Predict the structure.
Amino acid sequence: MKLVLNEEQQFLKDTAKNFAEERTPINHFRNLRDAKDSLLWDKEIWDEMVKLGWAGILIPEEYGGSDFGITGMSVVLQECGKTLTPSPLLATAVLGAYAIKEFGTDEQKSKYLPLIADGEITTAVAFDESSHHDISNTELSAVEADGNFVLNGSKKLVVDGSSADVLIVLGRTSGAKGEMAGLSLFILESHTDGVSRAKLDMADSRNYANIEFNDVVVSPNALLGSREAGGEAMDHILDIGRIALSAEMLGNSEAAFSTTIDYLKERKQFGVLIGTFQALQHRAAEMFCEIELTKSSVMAAMQGADENSNQLQVLASLAKSISGDTLHLVSNEAIQMHGGIGVTDEYDLGFFLKRARVTEQIFGSVNFHKERYANLSGF
Amino acid sequence: MENLDNFRSEVKAWLDNNCPPSMRTGADPKTPHDEVWGGRKAEYKNPESKIWLDRMGEKGWTMPTVPKEYGGGGLSKEEVKVLNEEMFLIGAKTPLLSFGIWMLAPVLLEYGTEEQKKEHLPKIIKGEIRWCQGYSEPGSGSDLASLATKAEDKGDHFLVNGQKVWTSYADKADWIFALVRTGPLEPKHDGISFLLIDMETQGVSTKPITLISGKSPFCETFFDDVEVPKENIVGELNAGWTIAKKLLQHERTFISNFGLAAAAGSKKDLVTIAKKHFGEDAGKISNSFFRTEVADHKIKEHAFGLTLKRAGDEGGKASAVASMFKYYGTEHNKKRHELMISAMGKDGVAWDGDEFDQEDKNLTRSWLRTKGNSLEGGTSEVQLNVISKRVLGLPS
C-alpha cells in the first residue's frame, strides 16, 4: 500500500477543491441554514455533483457509475468538508450505494444503482436506536408473517432521513438486544405505509430524522443481503462510511486550522501580531502534528478499503477515532485562538464546532472506536 | 531487470562466502555480540565482527550509494534495495554503526572539497576512523548558534580553545566534527565554521558524563590551544551554520526513526507488560483505565508509523517535517516508557541487585534515558518553534 494518491485520485481531489471553493463556499451552507431550508442541501448543487459523476463513484460501470473507489469518494468528501458543503454524498453515494452494490441481489442492484448514479433517488441508512452508537443494541423487530416481514420500532438520528426516497433499515429477525447475531437489513421506499419521519433540528443544521416503523409490511424481496447476516453487513457498510466521514472530518480540521493560522498572522494585540506569541505558536505546531497523523491514518484507511485489506476494521476505527480527536482539538483551539470573534454567529468558525460534535458521535464516537481498536488488537 | 537479477546472484554468492556464521541469524547465542563502531580504539570480543566489517568495508557496502572513488559501493538505489533484501534474508548484522556514516558523510558529500572526500570518506566507510559530534556547549544548548568555542586564524592553522558538551562517545572517537566560532564580530549565525579535528592532537581531552540512568555515552570535550590545519574546514569560512542545520536534519530524522524502531523491536511490549502485571480478562487488560491509556497510545503509535511511511512514499520532504518526527517520535517514546513503568507497578522502578530481573532493571534505565530523547538534537520546544516558523509561517 502506497500512502499517496494516484493521478486520477489527485485529479478528482483538485476538481472537488475547485468546486467547493467556487460553487459551495461556506456562505452556501450559511444561506441554507438562514433560510431554514427543508432539505438543508441544495438540489441544483446536487445535480451538478451528479453531473460530475460523484453520485456513482462507488457504483460499478455496468450500473452507470465510475467504480472509482473509496479513496476517490473520500477525497471528494475531504474537500467538501473544507467548506462544510452539505450534500447527499455521505448517505446516498457512500452508505446507500455501497450497501446495495456489496450486498444487493442483481435485481436490487439493477433497480437502485442506476437511479443513485443518475441522481434520481437519495437514500438513508437507519441503524442506531439510542443515544450511543452500537448496532448490537438493535430492537426494531422484523417478524415474519404470511410470507412477509413486519417491521416495528424506531431509528434515531438518521442522516438525510427526512428526505431520502429509499431507506435501508437494520432490524432484528431473531435474538435479543445486545446480540450481533439475528440482525437483517431491509430496503424499502420511504413512503411505505407505516413509516413516519420526524425531521430533527440539530446544532449542525444538517438533514436528519427520527424514523418510526409501525407495522410496516415488506416482502422478502426487501431483504438486503442474507437474513440474519445483517449485523456484519451493516458493520462493514459502516466501516466504509466511517472512513469517508473521517475524510470529511479531516477536511473540517484542515480548514478550521488554516483559518486560524491566517488569523494569527493578521490579528494584532499589544502592538504585535498574536502569531508571534510562543504560547500560541506551540499549540498551533502541535495541531499541525495531529493533523498530519490524521492525514496518514485516513489515507491508509481509504487505500486499505480499496485494496480489500483484512485490516479494514482496525483501519476504520483508527481513522474515525483519530479524526474525531483531532477535530475536537482543532475546533476548540480555533475558537479560543480567535478570541471573541470566534464565538459570534457572523463568523464561520462556530459552524465547524457544531458540525464537529455531531460527526464525532455518528457512526461511533472516539471512545467507541478506541474500544473497538483495542478489542481488534487483542488487548 | 536482467542486470538486477545478475546483481542479485552476485550478492547472494558474495554474502554466502563472506558473511561469517556468527554475523547471521541463527548464530550460536553464546557467541559474544559486539556493537561495532570501528575506529582506532575498537576492541572486538568476537573476531568475526571485525572480519565482517573489513569485508563489507572493502566492498564499500557500509555506504553502498557512495561513489567508488570515495570508497563507497557505487550502487544504484535499486541495487541497494537488492543488497538490503539479501542481507535481510540471511539475517546479516549491520556491520558498522557510525556517526560518520549517518551524519558526517552526507555533509562531506555535499560540502566537502575533493581532497576532504578522498581523505575521510574511505576511512568512514571502512570503519577505520570513528567520529563524534561537537555541537553543544555548556552555555549553548537550545541556542546553539551562541556557541563560543573559538578558532583563531594563525596563518597556517586555526588555534582552537573552548569546551563542548554532550559529545556522544567522545572518549572512544578518533576525530570530531565541531562547530567553532571563526567570526567573533559577525552576527552569531554568520561567524560559525564547521571544522574537522583529529582528537589525538595536543590539547584535546575528554571526560565522561554520568546521567540519571547511570552510565552514558556522553562526554565533555575540552580544547586547550589545539592547532588545527586550515584545510580541515568544511565549506566556506563562517558558513558553518548552514551545514550544521543540514546535519541536524539527518540527526533528527535518525532519532525519531530510532524511537519507533525501538518500539517495534523492543522485547518489552506495553500490552504484554500490562497484561502480565494487571492481569487479563477475556483477552483484555483488566484495569480498564489503564487499558484506555494503552489504546490511546497504540493508536497514536499506529498513526505515527503510517506518517513515517507516508513521508517516505511522498519522496521525503523538507526539514520541518524532520522536526515533526523528532518532536512526536521522542515524546511518544517517553510516554511509552512511562506507561510501561506504570504498568509494572512496584516492579517498575527496580535499580540494582539480585532481587530483580535484569530486564526489569534495564527498563528503569531505558525509561530514564528517554528523558534525554526530547532534549538531544534540539529540544521538543525547539522543534515546535521550527514547525511554527518554517511550516506554518508564523511571525517572529
Remarks:
- Residues 23 and 93 of chain B are 5 Å apart (CA to CA).
- The domain at 243-391 of chain B is CATH 1.20.140.10 (Butyryl-CoA Dehydrogenase, subunit A; domain 3).
- Chain B touches chain A at residues 271, 274-275, 280, 283-285, 291-292, 294-296, 298-300, 302-304, 306-307, 309-310, 313-314, 324, 327-328, 381, 383-385, 387-389, 391-396 (CB under 8 Å).
